[in-house]
Amino acid sequence: MDEFVLNIKTNNTSGVKQRKTVFHPCDAKKSSDVPTPQIPVKKVKLKAKRNDDRITRKNLRSKSSPSTANPLQFVYKSGEPHSSSRDGRTDEVTGGERISALMQTTVEPRIEPVFSEELWKPFCDSLGVHSFITSCLVDRFKLTRLTAIQKEAIPHLLEGKDCLIRAQTGSGKTLAYAVPLFHQLMSLEPPISRTDGTLALIILPTRELATQTFEVFQLLGKACVRIVPGCLIGGMKRKSQKVSLSKGLNILIGTPQRILDHILRSVNLSLSKLLYLVIDEADRLLEMGFEQSVRRIIDHIREVSNAVGKAQSLQTVLLSATLTPGVEKLAGLTLRQPVRCVVRETDAHSSGPSSPRVNGTCEAAGEFVMPTGLKHYILVVPWKLRLSALAAFLLLKCRYHKGGGKLIIFMATQDSVDFHYQLFKTVLVSDDEEFAIPIEVANLSLFRLHGKMEHNERESVFHSFCTSKSGILLTTDVASRGLDLAGVAWVVQYQVTGGPVDYVHRVGRTARAGGRGKALLFLDNMELGFADLLRARAGIVFEELSLADLMQTALFHVRHMKRNGLQLNSCTTVEEGVSRFFGLFLDAVCEDPVLHPLAEVAYTSFLRSYASFSGELRTFFTFKRLHLGHVARAFCLQATPRDIAARVSGRFSSKFEKSKKEKNVKINEIGDRKQSAPTDKKRAFELAFDPKPSSRNTKRAKPTDIAKRNMLAEFGL
């Protein structure tokens, strides 16, 4: 069976270590009749120009031919300096030129154990947990051992203490508070029923995370059918949610805005009997701007609890993957003498009782926890080759590698997700593709997920991706927190949008619960300082992939693909193969009347996102140093950036003018004040608004009504 070897390129100045791995890109049928010609690569020196958009050998750094006849064999060259895509100069990456003294210090990554040595059944029996819950965990969840954070937190929660839980993503924090919650509710006398109202409230940042948590509680609720959980999230009809509230929900799971909406508008939601409050993913709640909503919910709970004299009986749990100052401040508002449950490296394998820190100081804000089975890779690629590199990576991992698992690709904006989804669906997922050699290829399953999608579509995509064995999910940061997506092999950060905290949470979608996973970061040469920042803050050491070797996948694809009139085996070099490979995407955008506008909108939205970097991140992601023409090539646009911006702004302004005219007509129809436009501009105000002597008895609209109509018209209502 053919194999190809990756000798990862090394860069001693950026903390990159050397690694040699063997990949199996595809399970090709063994046939002696299939020719595997050698790919010659000529050594030609080309002068790089600033505004040259051609696929050059300078960009691809290809200097030697493959060592075997397999066209998919990747041979990496180590010890080469990076080449700038802007001016053609070769400059070695030195941390002193890009980062401060803080970033030059070596930081060891904080490694936390995931699983402990405790088994669920003896552990629950020793703590007196209800036998129905233990049976449900073992029989339905198929669990054997506790995670370290579960072993640390469950005993204190069973004692009724407030807890501040901090652990890495994918460590089982949901069951850490769900098991004590169910045990306490099942132990109440007299036994509760759904008519007793809401006794537990769980607040989460996103709909997908709330839905996932609700499914866990539904499965755990099989242990006691008298306890009824419910979910309140946006995108669902309020009327159906009000009906469920009127029937009674003992455990309420939802997002802040929808919970607050029902608190203010629904008389059926009463939190006066609340016994259990959980704030999950607290750092994400604060980052998404839900601080005021959470505070209002907490104030309401305090108000109704004080009115009935049950303020001291409320147990509060706050969970976060990172303990930032904002999370500490929120903990000070909600928790009373909390126990800090933080897993240490000795906790998982210690035979004695654990000793969590009580009322201790928080870790440093720059301390992050990384899964032990996660490996980090970096791909340095100029902007004009970034789209080709991503497409080649998807083909390598998903089409020519059977059983490659799932991939998650994070992008900066919703428009970028929509554009790349349609582009890859048009070019890579095609029914008319045929290959000249007998090779087994896998079908590409594309998914997209972002906040602008309808709720039903988001829920359908989320469940489809969770249940599929393979697939590619294009998403924004809406999927970067808390979601338990099984089988994710790679997390690709195609466009950076945040700092080390965002990076840690994004890569946390893989290597969950002690598993293994890989993360790939796309960076331009001028953005390499961000890798040094991650090394200084989180102790992340990257292994660098070679762009030239990755692009041989594109060469193999165009050499053996029967499509669009391409002549088989017509490409002989990597550069020519990449040029034709990119031409497939370029032609698709130019010929498709839907893709081209999507590309322009995605391009402008990405530039706005890139220009929004502030603080220390602006040092590495500087908008003034960004080559706008090369970025346009990454979106398959051939026009100048000025022309693209003019078309997009003109398109938006025309829509605005059209909606403005419709709004004015609607207001005139509602107010029954249809008037012809005045010809004299000086008399415009007088003619339009001064009452005429003959219309004194006409009923005029009130100013409040006019303001209300303007507001409704603005939203198209």
TrEMBL record:
Domain Helicase ATP-binding, first and last residues per copy: 154-341
Main EC class the enzyme belongs to: hydrolase
Polar residues compositional bias, start-end: 62-71
Keywords: ATP-binding, Helicase, Hydrolase, Nucleotide-binding, RNA-binding
SUPFAM superfamilies: P-loop containing nucleoside triphosphate hydrolases (SSF52540)
SMART domains hit by this protein: DEXDc, DUF4217, HELICc
Listed GO MF terms: ATP binding; hydrolase activity; RNA binding; RNA helicase activity
Domain notes: The Q motif is unique to and characteristic of the DEAD box family of RNA helicases and controls ATP binding and hydrolysis.
Protein name: ATP-dependent RNA helicase
Species the sequence originates in: Clonorchis sinensis (Chinese liver fluke)
